[in-house]
Amino acid sequence: MTVYEILTIALIGVLAAAATTAIWLGLVRWAGQCGPAGHEWALRAQQLQERMPRSHTHHAV
Q: Whole-angstrom Cα distance, residue 26 to residue 30?
């Protein structure tokens, strides 16, 4: 193997590790927001849905 092949394989490994770490950190951060403050968006969505007329939220079957 030449030096360039080794460097390419090393670069691929570093990029794969960085991507995997970023995904895991994002999931950990997202899971950490499951406290009362983390579900504010769900409460807001529910409040908006309650304010909307029934005809706008459900389609006739």
A: 6
